[in-house]
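Re: the pair you flagged

First of the two:
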Amino acid sequence: MTTQWHEIYLGIENAKTMSDLADTASRAVSRIGFSNWLFEVKSTCSGNDSEFFSDRGQYESWIKYYKDADFLPGGSPVYAALRTKGLAEWSDGARFVLTQCSWIGADLPALFSVGREITPVRVEEKATNAPYIAWLAGAIHAKFIALSAPTPKTGDVCSLTDRERELLRWTALGKTAGEVASIVGLTTRTVYFHLKNAMLKMNATNTLQAVVKAMVLGLI
């Protein structure tokens, strides 16, 4: 990972509020180079009211408007769907299926909200940095869910082994089990075994939930 991407990762990791996360996303776009990206903003998952930004000034104005607005996700039906079936499939390349939407490209899901509406953002890479696009979406998504989650009860804290923490950290970066196995020198089956144990300890139904809970609890 280059210094540029490492700094972006630290910004995501250290975000304490949704505003912090929005700032990090905006900086990531600026540092990578706006000319390499195409943004599509949809105000609802129905696909109505779609807008493309090819000018940085327009996009930054949009960022500021959404960042300064009240963040009220609790009353949003889209948010409710995101927290159930949209919360979602941690699939190859850290791509996500949000509610009823299936978009080509990497999603920065539900990063900004105004009132009762969640606004998903689709980001398509036009030139370079392709290996990092899905990773960025996955990292921001995981942090968004962590910031959205209720404060955990003391009784929810559990002990993970160093190996389980390590594998969850790689998973949080959007790596598949096979990729993680290659990185840490284990078989894919062994990686699945450790992740399954982590899921059981975290009382999670899937790997993404285990990652989110571990992040919220400060275990990874």
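Second of the two:
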Amino acid sequence: MAEQRYNVPAGVAGANTAEKLPPQNLEAEQSVLGSLLLKQLELVGGREYLMDLTNAVPSAANVGHYAHIVRKKSTLRNLLYASHQITQLGYDESDDVDALLDQAEQKLFAISQRSLRQNFISIKSVLHDTFERIEKLHQGDGRLRGISTGFFDLDDKLSGLQASDLIVIAARPSVGKTSLAMDLARHMAVSEKKSVGIFSLEMSKEQLVDRLLCTQAGVELWRMRTGKLSQSPQHDDFPRIGHAMGELSEANIFIDDGANVNIMEIRTKARRLAAEQGCDCIIVDYLQLMEGRSNRNGDNRVQEVAEITRALKSIARELNIPVVALSQLSRAVEQQQGAAIPRLAHLRESGTIEQDADVVLFIYRKSADRKYHIDELSAEDRNLAEIHIAKHRNGPTGVVKLFFNEKLVSFQNLTRPGSRTAVSASAPPPMPDPGALPDEVDAPPF
């Protein structure tokens, strides 16, 4: 038998002894041990409790209950361990308190989600899940893999917004980034019954709600914001607005319009929303207005934006939801020869936006291109918008054409073959015949 050594605390009898010798008298040792155990008997429940344990024979019929007990105790142990780690963080003298808070919340969030990580997973188990997913998609009769955008040509290219993807929507100012993002949010929440979180760093919650309401109601935004609404029997705006308010009030859209928030706050709020309300998609408007982790090391803006994009991608993967981030473009796009159609190199302030994004969508409208005068454009070009899929990590790229309604600040599907009516990104409320509608909801003239 291998020699065993024991570490004895100082002050305890025998602490200076290098090793313990086996007992010389087994009967004496048994009597001493028995007396010690008898003293502890009451502490463990007494004789009656021990008898109950001997009679409680486990049964395979209760295996689910036993597994629940094991899982519960494991969660409690993990909670104790995490609390110890968080206590240690409290003694950290680092100036970056936001980073410490993020670490603490991450530890608790990991327990609440029971996200036990494994270093390696057998490809056999992954292949099994993959085959089931492929078979389900094959039998799904064209069902999208992700969340529908409401734009069928865009869905054909992307198969919807995919979980864990970072989708970047970029354009020059006043081209329609926020409008497209709100169309996506409205369709996902109203038509698809999804939960959407919106972080608006540029516009207030009132401005966003005005946009959502006017588009859902089919009422011109400027007339609604100025109170110049129609009450004529033919074009009464109030029933439309009332109907739209009812639909939007039931939609799971959550807006945070805090200004000057950093990426740590957004991550914290996104986790909280996912835990309390559920969250199927996050929209951030827009990326260049965000701050990094307090810019503690004096990093330049390029490094800060790189940190932000990596964190947004991390949020998408952690919550397993699509994250849509709006982004500005550099002025270089307006200085190139010909039409100012954006390219990946025009993403402002950081090349890591291109690297971290799974999908990059550029919005281009001739009516917003300074190289074209509005009076020189045809009626078709005035309302035509092009969505350039410049990057698609797991699928095709290309161009999708949409109809842009400036008065409703909304993108709509172009006409299907054989049809002359424009279809909104989400089903609009019941309205009068299209021929009797006011100008703001006229179908495109092409």
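The first strand starts at residue 166 and ends at 171.

-B.
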